[in-house]
Every structure is written in C-alpha cells, then in structure tokens.
Design brief:
mainly alpha; Growth Hormone, Chain: A; 74% helix; 0% strand
Length: 430
C-alpha cells in the first residue's frame, strides 16, 4: 500500500486538485444560475452539457492519447478546463454556459482516462483492489471538500471562478514534474448494445436509468437547495453530505450483494432510496415558515444523506451483476459497454429533471429521482421472475465511482486471476 502511494503521489495529488475544483465548480454554477434567474429548464439544459462532452470525449480521447502521449494531453485539457472556468464569469448566458460545460466534460473524461490508464500500468494483480480503493477515496473526498469552498466568496463575484481555475492549474505541477514514465496506452473495446443486452438485460437497462438519476442528482442538487432558499453554507453541506454518503455506502452494500442475489440488493436499495427521497420531500414542508414556526433542516439532511447512501452504490452493483453473466475475460469490455449506456442516460438526466421542477415545483427534483430509482427496482422484480440466480459467480463486488472510464474498469481485481506464490517445499515433496 505504501509503495502504491509513494509511486503514485503525483497522480493522486493532481487528481485530488482536479476533483477539488470539479466539486466546487458544480455547486458554484448551480447556485449562480439561480442568482442569474436562469429558468429551471435552461439550467438543466446548461448542466447537461457536461455529460454530452463526457460522452463524446470517452469515444475520441483514446486515439488522441495514443498519438500525442499522456502528459501532453493531460496538460492541454487541464489548461482547457482551467480557461473555461474563467469564461463562465465573463459571459453569462445559458447557451454559452452549455457550450462551456461540453468542453469541461470533454476535458474531464480525458483527465480521468489518463489517470486510470496510469494507475492500471502501475497496479499488479495483487494490489488492484487497493489501488482502486485509494483512487475512490481521493475522488470522493476531494470532490466533497471542494463543495465547501462555495463559502469562500459570494457566487455572484468573480473570485470563486478564479479559485476553481487556480486548483485546475495547480494540478499540472505534480504531473508535469513526475519522473515516472507514462504507460503505453491501449484502447478497450466494449460489447455491442445487442451483446450486452443479451448477456444482462437488467445490467443494461439499470445502467441507463442510473445515468439519468445520478447525473440529475449531482447536477441539480445545488440548484434545488438554492431554489429552496438554503444559505451558501447549507448548500455546500448538503452537497458534501451526498458525496460522502455515497462513498461510505459502497463497501457495506456491495458486500451484501456478494452473499445474496445482487438483484435483491439492487431492488431493496432502489426502493429504500425512493422512500428516503419521499421523506426528504415531506421534511421540507415547514422549513421556510416565519421564525418561530419553521422546523430544523436536520431531518432533510438525514433523509437526503440516506437517499445517497442507498442510491450511489447502484452503478457498481449493476456492474457486478452484469459480470455474473459474462465470462471473466469479458469483464472489462462489459464494463465499457455499461459505461457507454450510462453516458447515454446521463446526457438527458439534468434536462429531464429540470422539466419536472418547472412543472411541479422545486420538489419535482426528488419526484424525478423517485420515479427513475423505483423503475430500476420494478424492472429488477420482473427480471427475477424470468431469470434464475447464478450460483457461485466468478465476479465479486468492487467499489466503482460513477466517473470511472472503460480504462478504469481494468482496475477491477477480478478481471485477472491473482497468481498464487510458489510453495517450493511442496515441489520438493513431489
């Protein structure tokens, strides 16, 4: 473990700074959009641009890295992301911000791909799980911490945008100064949609629905909180709570799925998350009454945190469930296919959710999440009726961030067998 940290300190430091900026920027843009009186539909459209860029970047970036190299591409797109942040504070327009978010999404998937291919190169069969765990901790903790920088200065000022850009630019220093040689890049071919659906209908459908709900949640939670007249600190706290809850829940819920039918765990997780989303709606009823009558936001924080606790491990659960029905040598390609389907869903999530918020009010945010989370659960019930459980599958649950790229799927420790050490004493006996 220590060797991993020492050899990869530059990469983890750089990605930590990037996710610090990413978490900060996501909350900042949502709050600023409310302050600029963007309509909810315009805001959802604007925020969906990130996932549009992410989706198309995932398909085109590998060839660029192969031609130019890891370090140059990392420097180019970290710089691009840094510049784009500053442009948000200069040109205030939903359509312009949509274009800028497309560029940001394209840049971010590039940075993820480089980081994960680098980690793959340094990981061995014995430490893949440890590498992935550290990577997840860096991503989620840095993103969660970045959300508190929303309190640095008022969102209507230009200083917060400068700070985001500063973090992005600082990420270049450890990467460019590292003496470690970049890895040889190899592209990962995914399964076709038809092959993926034939192998695991539950996996493909659930991945698309996860993409819709998770993209909406991360994109619009700050918009929702700002629309509910939360203070800047309260907005940063609720976004922090979602990120941390999702990180904490990966291991316990994932381990349950190794002992029970994963579909059962997925069904319970979706319905429990829907239940707590409904509780969050009811908890908002008296929060904004006049002083002396208003209720505390404590229950809202609790219910929102519990919603994220049961919701955010879903993609990793779906990934593990899909692997139950494919051969071990296809784990990575199946993961790439799931990420493709997830991305298709993610592109539409924020915009669709904003329409709900426009039609039925701010709590349309949670209504939207309830609908799509429950849809996964109901489809899981249907699939359990038509397909029996797999006994002793080769796969096992591995915590997996929703931002993982097809390259990062290789960090799954079950994709390759762990070589057992040779017992020389046994050889002598033979």
């Amino acid at each position: 473990m220590n060797k991993i940290l020492i050899n990869s300190w530059a990469l983890f430091t750089g990605m930590g700074l990037i996710m610090l900026a990413h978490g900060f920027q996501g909350s900042l843009l949502g709050v600023r959009a409310v302050q600029e009186n963007f309509s909810l539909t315009s805001t959802g459209f604007m925020l969906s641009g990130y996932f549009v860029g992410y989706f198309f970047g995932a398909k085109t970036i590998p060839s660029l890295i192969s031609r130019v190299g890891h370090i140059r591409v990392f420097a180019a797109f970290a710089s691009a992301a840094s510049i784009v942040v500053l442009l948000h504070s200069i040109i205030i327009s939903p359509f312009t911000w949509f274009i800028l978010r497309v560029i940001t999404g394209f840049s971010m998937v590039c940075l993820y791909t480089i980081a994960e291919s680098w980690l793959n190169d340094r990981a061995s069969n014995k430490n893949r799980g440890s590498v992935l765990s550290i990577y997840m901790i860096v991503l989620y903790s840095s993103m969660a911490l970045g959300m508190f920088f929303l309190n640095f200065s008022k969102p209507e000022n230009f200083q917060p945008f400068i700070l985001v850009s500063l973090f992005m630019s600082l990420s270049l220093i450890p990467i460019l100064l590292t003496k470690k040689k970049p890895p040889r890049f190899k592209t990962i071919s995914g399964m076709t949609i038809k092959e993926l659906f034939e192998a695991s209908p539950m996996g493909m459908v659930s991945a698309a629905l996860c993409g819709i709900s998770h993209s909406a949640m991360f994109s619009l939670i700050a918009v929702y909180a700002a629309s509910m007249n939360f203070s800047i600190f309260e907005i940063s706290f609720v976004t922090f709570l979602i990120a941390i809850s999702g990180a904490i829940s990966q291991w316990p819920i994932g381990k349950l799925s190794d002992f029970y039918d994963r579909r059962t765990v997925i069904i319970y997780s979706t319905f429990l998350s829907s239940f707590f989303a409904l509780c969050a709606i009811f908890s908002t009823g008296n929060m904004h009454l006049p002083d002396g009558l208003a209720s505390s936001k404590t229950w809202f924080y609790i219910f929102t945190g519990l919603f994220a606790f049961f919701s955010l491990p879903l993609f990793a659960l779906v990934f593990a469930h899909t692997n139950d029905f494919v051969s071990k040598e296809k784990f990575v390609s199946a993961g790439a296919g799931l990420q493709f389907v997830f991305g298709l869903g993610a592109m539409s999530g924020p915009f669709m959710c904003s329409l709900f918020m426009d039609l039925i009010g701010e709590n349309g945010f949670f209504v939207f999440l309830i609908i799509f989370q429950s849809a996964i659960g109901f489809y899981g019930i249907y699939r359990m009726r038509v397909r029996s459980v797999i006994g002793n599958p080769d796969s096992q649950f591995t915590p997996m961030p929703t931002t993982i790229t097809p390259i990062g799927m290789e960090l799954n420790p079950t994709t390759e067998p762990i070589e057992e050490p040779i017992n020389h004493s046994e050889i002598k006996k033979v």
